[in-house]
Design brief:
The structure is a homodimer. With about 575 residues, chain A is α+β, with helices and mostly antiparallel strands. Chain A contains 22 helices and 18 strands. In chain A, helix 14 crosses helix 17. Chains A and B meet through strand 9, helix 13, strand 11, helix 14 and helix 17 of A and strand 9, helix 13, strand 11, helix 14 and helix 17 of B.
C-alpha cells in the first residue's frame, strides 16, 4: 500500500515530502509539479498574471506569511483521565493520542477560513484527543462510550473539508475527539465479476487506484482533493470528481456501506438495486459524521479505460458555451470530463499558462472573434470504438453551436495541472490575497441567472475603490437537467478583518445563488459553513426529518454536532 | 388528454372498453391484441402450449370463473357522517364518494392474492370512501383532518400494485379512505432546456407520452403495468421499466417531488444535483404512501429516440447467457432493453408464439446445439450513430461469449407483446391455474445461486405428485454490479386453499432468495406482502430509522399503515 501522506497543518501538500510519486502514478505525467518546487510568488505566477491581478484588484503583492508552526499554542487536552483510560482499554494505548502534533494535524479542514485561522496560529478548534479504532465493532463501542461519557466525535479522514466539516463546534462545549480513520484504510474484498470493491473508509484514492490497477480496474473518482481525501470522506460529503459527468457522482459509486452509530450499526445498500422501501443508503451519504461513522464502503469499479482523449474547444461567449453544453446534455452526448470556463477564467488561465503556446493560442482565438471567449475542456474515456462515436457526435453538435476546436494541448495541460489549484492558493495567501471558491448547481434554465447573481453579489461585497474582485467561474459537471457552477474569487485581502471580509461575501453570494434557484452546494457538503442555509434548501420540515433520524441514532448529539443541522 | 381507463375489478384490462388506442399510440403496432378479443383459454394458449402445461404440471384445464361483480357484497361505509361532511366541505361534495362502484374499484391491487379474493367476491378490504383532492393544499388539509379524526388514508393511483400495496390493513381497524389521485393528473410545467416536466401524481404513462410526443420528447418508463399505473405510483414504489437498463429506474427519472404529510408539506429534490446533506428525496421514493401522499413530480424527459432496434440472440445455456450479460455490463455495453430468458421461459415463449416462424426458429436453434438454450432480447434506442457503435461493440462481445444472433423478429415480437402477460393471467386463472410472479436482484456473483435457490424453493412448495411447477425466469434489468431476476410460476391450483398454497410458496421462495443474497424486491416494492422480511434486508436499526421518520411525519399512523413497516 502506498504511503498516505498527511497534509501540512497550515496549507495544502504533504508535510515535508513531495507528492510527485502519487500523482505520477495516475497519468504517468511529467513536468506537472513546477508549482511545488518554487517557493515564491514570482515562481507561482507568471509576470503577466501578476501584473493582471495587481491592476484588476488594486492589490499590492506583499508578504503575509503564516506564523511558524512551532509557535502555535494549543490548549491542554480536556479529555477526562478515566475516559482516556477507557478508550485506551478499548482501542489500545497506542491508538489514543493526546500529543500536540497529533492534535494539531487533526484540527479543522482546508477552507479559506481554516487556513486563515491556522496561519494566524489559532487552533482553538483542536480536538482534545485523536482516537483510531481498527474496525466497525471498535468504532461502535467507542461511539457508545462517547455517548455515555459526553464526548463529541468528529470523524477525520484526509482533513480536506472546505466547508468547516471538521469544526468540532459543540453548543454544550463538551470535550471532543478526532476519530482518525487511518487504521481502516485497506482493500477488504474484491468481487471482480460484480465490479465491486470493499474498502475501509480511511483509504485514499491513490492507494485504491494502485491496488485496482494491478487487476486492470479503476474507481475513477478524481476530485481536486484526490491526493489527500479519503473514500469515507467522499461518501460522507457527497463528493463529485472531475470525471463525474461520465462515471457519476460518488453517491452513484457507492453500492453499500456500514455506518456505526452510538445506538448500533447499519448495513446499507443492496447492489445492484432494491425497491424495498425508502433509500437508507442515501441517508448515510452526505451525513457528514452527524449520524455516525462510515466504517466500510462497497464501491463500484470499472475496467481501466483503454483510451483517454482530452481536448479543448472555444466558444465565442458564455451564453453560447452554456447552450452548447445543454445541447450535448439533452442528447446524452456529454463527455466524461466537461469543464467550461467563463471569459474571466479563460483569460486568467491563458495568462497563467504563460509561454509561447498560450500566446499563440490567444492570438488565434482573437483572430477568430473569440478574444472574449470561453474555453471548454472535454475528456473522453473508455472503449476506443465508443469514444470515437461519442466524440464525433459531440463534435458535430459543438460545431453546430459555433464552437471551434483548439486541440489536445489545452486538454492535456488541464489534465496535468488538475490538482494544482490548492498548492497555488497557499502562495497567493502568502502575498496578501483573499482566495476562496464556492460552488452550486442549477437547471440549464436557471444557470445563467445564478451565474449573474453570484458575480454581482461577490462584486458588491468584495469590491474596493470601484475595483471588483476577480471572479472566475466554470461549469465542472454536466447533467441532462443542468450543471454545476464552480466559482473562484480573488480579492485584495482585508489584513485587519480577513475572516469577516469573507464571511460577509460568502453570505451575500449564498443568499443570491439560492434566490436565483441554485443549490446550496453541488459537491462540497454543508459542514459548519452552510448550516444557516440548509433550511432554505430542504425546508423546516425537511430539517425536522433529519433531526428525527439523528435523534434515533445519536440521541445525545455527540456525532459531529457542529455540522449539517442548524442550531 | 387521453382517457385514463380504470381497471376491471377482478382482473386486468380496462372495464369494458378496449385499450387498443392507448397501446397503439406507443409503437404504432398492429395485431398485438389477439389475447383481448378471444374470451376462452383455447384462444389464449396455442394447443401445443396447453398440452405442454397439462403434461408438465399435471393440470387438467377446468373452468374456475370469478363470481359475478353484481353478486359481490360490500359492507356499509364506516366513515362517520360528520367526518364525511368535513371532507365534503374541504373537497366539494362531488369529491367524496361512498357508493358501491367507487369503493369496489379502489379495493386492493392486482396481485394473485388480490385477484383470488376479488374473484371469490371477497372485498372485505374495500375502503369506506373514496376522496379526491385536487391539489397539494387540499391533500395536506385532508391528511391533517384524517389524522385528527383517526381515518386511515390509502393513496390510490392506478390500482396496479402486485404486493398488497393497497391492502388498507390497520392494526387499530379504523375507517379507511382511498385517496384517489385522478384529479391531479395533468402536465403542470415543461422546461424543455432543462429536460424537466412537472406532472400530477395521478397521470399515467400513455397520457404523459402523448403530451410529450407533441414536443418531440419522451419519458420512456415502460413497466408492464404502463397502461394503467400512475406516475405517482412509480415513485412511491421505486418502479423499474422495460428500458430501465438504458434510461435508469424510475428513481433516477425523478428530479423532485412534493410530499404532503399529516404534519406538513415537503418539497424535495434539487436538480441537477445537491450535496446539501442526506438525500431526502430518496426517503419519499419507495415510501408507498406510508409517509404521506406524493402530490407533484418533476421528471427527467429526453428527446424521442431517432432510432430503435430490437433483436434476439441465443445462448447455449443460462450460465453462458449470464456470463455474456455480465461482460457487457462491466464494459458499459448493456443495451437499453435487456431480457434474458432461462431455458424454461425460452421454451415456453417459443411454444406460446405458435405458428411457422416459431417452429422454424426452434428447429434452427436445435440444429445449432441451442435446443435447451436461452433467448436474449435486446433493444437499442437513441441517436443512430451511437446506437450503431454500441450495437457493434456489444455484438462482438456477445459473439465472443458464444451467442448467436437470431434476428429482429424475436425482438419485435417481444416488443409487440410487452404488455400482454397480465391479460393472459386472467385467462389462466379462469382455468384452474396458479399464476404469480416474484422478482429480486443480486450481484453477478450471487445471481446464479439466487436463481437455483428460488427454483428449488418453489419446486419444493408447489410440486405435486412428483411434478414440479413451471418456473420461468428472466433477467429483466442489467447493471454493472448485477441484475434483476423476474420469476413467473405456474402450478395446478389448490382449489380448496388457493391463498394458503401461494402464501406458503411465497414464504419459502422469499426465505431462499434472501439467504442466497438476493434483494427482497427489485421493483415491486414492499407492500403488505413483503413486510415480514423488511427487517432482514435493512436490519432492525434500519426499521427503527424508518419508524422515526414516520413518527415525525405521521404521528398517528394514518398513512397506509398496512404496508412497508412490519407490525
Amino acid at each position: 500500500m502506498p504511503e498516505q501522506p498527511e497534509l501540512t497543518i497550515q496549507g495544502w501538500g504533504p508535510g515535508g515530502s513531495r507528492v510527485a510519486t502519487v500523482r505520477e502514478g495516475l497519468d504517468g505525467d511529467e513536468g506537472s509539479l513546477e508549482l511545488d518546487t518554487d517557493p515564491d510568488l514570482a515562481g507561482a505566477l507568471p509576470r503577466a498574471a501578476r501584473r493582471h491581478l495587481s491592476r484588476e484588484l488594486g492589490w499590492t503583492p506583499r508578504s503575509t506569511p503564516p506564523v511558524r508552526v512551532s509557535e502555535i499554542r494549543i490548549a491542554p487536552s480536556r479529555l477526562p483521565g478515566d475516559v482516556r483510560a477507557a478508550m485506551a482499554a478499548l482501542l489500545g494505548e497506542e491508538n489514543v493520542a493526546t500529543d500536540r502534533e497529533s492534535r494539531l494535524r487533526r484540527t479543522g479542514g482546508k477552507s479559506y477560513l481554516d487556513l486563515l485561522r491556522r496561519r494566524e496560529g489559532d487552533v482553538s478548534d483542536a480536538p482534545d484527543a485523536v482516537v483510531s479504532p481498527g474496525d466497525t465493532d471498535e468504532t461502535a463501542a467507542l461511539l457508545a462510550l462517547c455517548a455515555e461519557r459526553g464526548v463529541v466525535v468528529v470523524p477525520f479522514g484526509g482533513g480536506t473539508s472546505v466547508v468547516g466539516g471538521l469544526s468540532g463546534i459543540d453548543p454544550d462545549d463538551r470535550p471532543a475527539v478526532a476519530l482518525d480513520l487511518g487504521r481502516m484504510a485497506s482493500v477488504r474484498d474484491l468481487d471482480v465479476p460484480s465490479s465491486l470493491v470493499t474498502v475501509g473508509p480511511g483509504m485514499r484514492g491513490p492507494a485504491l487506484e494502485e491496488a485496482l490497477a494491478r487487476v486492470g480496474l479503476t474507481l475513477g473518482h478524481l476530485p481536486q482533493s484526490w491526493e489527500f481525501a479519503t473514500l469515507g470522506g467522499y461518501a460522507a460529503t457527497r463528493s463529485a470528481g472531475q470525471a463525474s459527468t461520465g462515471i457519476g457522482r460518488f453517491d452513484e459509486l457507492v453500492a453499500g456501506l456500514t455506518l456505526a452509530t452510538p445506538t448500533g450499526v447499519l448495513e446499507l445498500g443492496h447492489p445492484p438495486a432494491s425497491a424495498a422501501g425508502p433509500d437508507l443508503l442515501g441517508l448515510a451519504l452526505g451525513s457528514e459524521g452527524a449520524l455516525g461513522v462510515i466504517t466500510e464502503l462497497r464501491l463500484r469499479v470499472r475496467p481501466k479505460p483503454r483510451t483517454a482523449t482530452y481536448e479543448g474547444w472555444s466558444f465565442r461567449s458564455w451564453a453560447a458555451g452554456l447552450a452548447g453544453l445543454q445541447r450535448l446534455a439533452r442528447h446524452d452526448l456529454l463527455p466524461d470530463v466537461v469543464r467550461l470556463s467563463d471569459p474571466d477564467e479563460t483569460r486568467a488561465n491563458l495568462l497563467m499558462a504563460g509561454g509561447t503556446g498560450a500566446r499563440v493560442l490567444r492570438g488565434s482565438l482573437r483572430a477568430r472573434g473569440h478574444g472574449q471567449g470561453c474555453l471548454l475542456v472535454v475528456g473522453w474515456e473508455g472503449l476506443p470504438t465508443l469514444v470515437r462515436a461519442r466524440r464525433r457526435a459531440a463534435a458535430s453538435a459543438l460545431r453546430e453551436g459555433g464552437a471551434v476546436r483548439v486541440g489536445r494541448k489545452v486538454g492535456e495541460s488541464w489534465r496535468r495541472h488538475r490538482f494544482d489549484a490548492p498548492y497555488l492558493r497557499d502562495r497567493l495567501l502568502d502575498s496578501g490575497l483573499l482566495v476562496e471558491t464556492l460552488e452550486t448547481a442549477a437547471t440549464w434554465t436557471a444557470l445563467p441567472v445564478v451565474y449573474d447573481a453570484v458575480r454581482s453579489a461577490l462584486a458588491r461585497s468584495l469590491g474596493r475603490d470601484g475595483r471588483p474582485p476577480l471572479v472566475m467561474s466554470h461549469v465542472s459537471h454536466g447533467y441532462p437537467t443542468g450543471a454545476s457552477l464552480y466559482v473562484t474569487v480573488l480579492a485584495d485581502r482585508d489584513d485587519d478583518l480577513p475572516i469577516q471580509q469573507w464571511l460577509a461575501a460568502k453570505r451575500e453570494a449564498t443568499d443570491a445563488l439560492l434566490a436565483a434557484g441554485g443549490t446550496l452546494t453541488h459537491h462540497h457538503a454543508v459542514g459548519a459553513d452552510h448550516r444557516p442555509w440548509l433550511e432554505r434548501e430542504i425546508g423546516p420540515l425537511g430539517v425536522e426529518v433529519l433531526r428525527a433520524v439523528k435523534q434515533r441514532l445519536d440521541p445525545t448529539g455527540i456525532c459531529n454536532p457542529g455540522v449539517l443541522l442548524p442550531d
